[in-house]
């Protein structure tokens, strides 16, 4: 599987040709009930394979594994749900 | 397009293990790790989902490294004396080459964190078990409980290693484990284990 770091695609030595983007965001999603609200939005996105929010972290980092670079769409979705969301740069 | 950076990944791993060894599990956070490894937090999150994922991946990596070193030149059909000596030498090689890995491994094995990982009977454990069973079958090893076997066959070794790694031992000496000293202790262990 190919792993892409945000907009820079990254190759791994796996045989699978499927591309994978890992997208990292800073959010203010902290409570369990916030998580529920976000879950509905993110699970609806077809391109998202897996996601998690590290609520132990001060940046409440949202990590998304996606088959496309849908950074802007994710920011829009989370923002519209009423939360702060910006891309964390490398 | 850039390739996944193995050097960066390994630098992050080394720093994380060092932080855990120095400050304990609570001393590690993704932010502190990013600072210590001189990378952005986002970079840490490319490789690890969260702290727990980081700990699990670290442990699996260290365990695999240990297994690879320990099994080099070894097979369960070796004579008991030859096989056990290879184990002592290989394990010492691992500890001296990767001292932080070793400390982290010990710390992790003695912590509740281990319950988070999938503990399965690995090829390594199977190989060790088969080795002891073969030795018993061939009459090179007394029959005994596995725990007693481990304590005598490896407990001695690990105690000496711990003295070696301490700057000053409880006996107040600066003990250095040499191959000659190790061989002398090994002879005594073999004597104790032979039928």
Question: Could you explain how this protein is built, in words?
Answer:
The complex is a heterodimer of chains A (90) and B (195). Chain A has helices at 32-44, 71-80, and strands spanning 2-5, 8-11, 19-27, 48-54, 61-66, 85-87. Mean pLDDT of chain A is 83; it is low at 5-17. Chain A is of the alpha+beta class and 90 residues long. Chain B is elongated. At the A-B interface, strand 2 of A face strand 1 and helix 3 of B.
Percent range for β-strand residues of chain A: 35-45%
Can you tell me the overall shape of chain B?
elongated
Morphology of chain A: globular
Number of helices of chain A: 2
Largest sheet of chain B: none
> Average pLDDT of chain A, to the nearest integer?
83
Number of strands of chain A: 6
Rg for CA atoms of chain B: 19 Å
Helix content of chain B: 55-70%
Assembly context of the chains: heterodimer
Structural class of chain B: mainly alpha
Rounded mean pLDDT of chain B is 89
| Low-pLDDT ranges of chain B | none
Largest interchain contact: A-B, 20 and 17 residues
Cα-to-Cα separation, first versus last residue of chain B: 63 Å
The helix/strand class of chain A is alpha+beta
SS summary, helix count of chain B: 9
Number of strands of chain B: 1
Strand content of chain B: under 5%
Cα distance, first to last residue of chain A?
21 Å
Query: Helix fraction of chain A?
Result: 25-40%
How would the blueprint of this fold be written?
The complex is a heterodimer of chains A (90) and B (195).
Chain A: E1 2-5, E2 8-11, E3 19-27, H1 32-44, E4 48-54, E5 61-66, H2 71-80, E6 85-87
Parallel strand pairs in A: 1-3
Antiparallel strand pairs in A: 1-2, 3-5, 3-6, 4-5
Chain B: E1 2-3, H1 6-23, H2 30-37, H3 41-47, H4 51-71, H5 80-97, H6 99-109, H7 123-137, H8 146-165, H9 179-193
Helix pairs in contact in B: 1-2, 1-6, 2-3, 4-5, 5-6, 5-8, 8-9
